[in-house]
Amino acid sequence: MEYNGSAIIAMTGKNCVAIAADRRFGVQALTLGMDFQKIFRVTDRTYIGLSGLATDVTTLNERFRYKVNMYRLNEEREIGTKTFAHMVSSSQYEKRQAIPEFPWRFGPYFVEPVIAGLEKDNTPFICSMDTIGCINYAKDFVVAGTATEQLYGVCESFWEPDLEPEDLFETISQALLNAMDRDALSGWGGIVHVITPTGVITRTLKGRMD
């Protein structure tokens, strides 16, 4: 979980929700890229952030895209945020299986998902999961990645209930930047998506490059 490094936050506001992540791609302390995508669009009202092993992040993104497309074809409608969260949870859990050569060992995806979106009534929904899909619901914020401890500290200080979209953007941006400054395995810029009933606001952040 610490091989590539990451920092992801999802945070609620007043009829809006935001999700943010760093952009660093590294191998332990060696930085290889500054544009690695960790947040992916599911629908216009649902986004998912994947923290953990970079290869599993790419694999799961493709798998979730396939499952969402199949859901759209079968149900003839877009998948809801909460429904998608349970789909992710079951996908994580079904990988929790014994390795044939080593029956006592298990091989889950080394990824901790963070999901953010709006329900049909514009109620914010956020949750996070561990590597085998145990859902952690929250009404304020959820975090994941190697900067988890730092993120919890700044989010608890900055977050307030019923933030407007612009205030929510400022809050989550400051929380992300301050936490990344204290974690050597994440950082090098960030990206923020603010999901509102009328659309999605996406902005990139410049961070310290050291």
Automatic annotation (TrEMBL):
InterPro entries: Ntn_hydrolases_N (IPR029055), Proteasome_beta_3 (IPR033811), Proteasome_bsu_CS (IPR016050), Proteasome_sua/b (IPR001353), Proteasome_suB-type (IPR023333). It holds the Pfam family Proteasome. It is found in: Cytoplasm; Nucleus. Keywords: Cytoplasm, Hydrolase, Nucleus, Proteasome. Its main location: cytoplasm. The keyword Cytoplasm applies. One of its GO terms (molecular function) is hydrolase activity. GO terms for cellular component: proteasome complex. It comes from the Eukaryota. SUPFAM superfamilies: N-terminal nucleophile aminohydrolases (Ntn hydrolases). Component of the proteasome, a multicatalytic proteinase complex which is characterized by its ability to cleave peptides with Arg, Phe, Tyr, Leu, and Glu adjacent to the leaving group at neutral or slightly basic pH. The proteasome has an ATP-dependent proteolytic activity. Component of the proteasome complex. Belongs to the peptidase T1B family. This is Proteasome subunit beta. It comes from Polyrhizophydium stewartii. The lineage of its organism: Eukaryota, Fungi, Fungi incertae sedis, Chytridiomycota, Chytridiomycota incertae sedis.
